[in-house]
Design brief:
Elements: H1 5-17, E1 26-27, H2 28-35, H3 39-51, E2 55-57, E3 64-67, H4 76-84
Antiparallel strand pairs: 1-3, 2-3
């Protein structure tokens, strides 16, 4: 199984926000800098998490993001589905289809 980098960084972002829940959040710019990622890339992951109700957050660079629910209620599957959608995780190929 292969998990893409977007899921990985979204999971890292949630892990960084977990100890701050529920009272504090982090700015997008701070998360991008902490993980040494371009802000637009981190913003894309944050939008995906927000769309699925995993995080809440402000707009723009200084907008603070926080978990929308308790950290123990968020699973890696939640994050994976938020970022990648429900496309198949495995792609099976039928060897016999390629035969004579």
């Amino acid at each position: 199984m292969w998990i893409n980098k977007g899921v990985e960084w979204a999971a890292h972002a949630c892990a960084v926000m977990a100890p701050l829940w529920p009272d504090r959040g982090l700015a997008l710019s701070a998360m991008a800098e902490f993980h040494d990622l371009p802000e637009p890339y981190m913003a894309k992951q944050m939008r995906a998490l927000a769309r699925e109700g995993i995080i809440t957050g402000g707009r723009g660079r200084s907008g603070f993001h926080n978990l929308a629910r308790a950290p123990d209620e968020i699973t890696l599957l939640d994050i994976l589905l938020a970022v990648d959608g429900d496309k198949p995780m495995f792609r099976w190929t039928e060897i016999r289809q390629k035969g004579p």
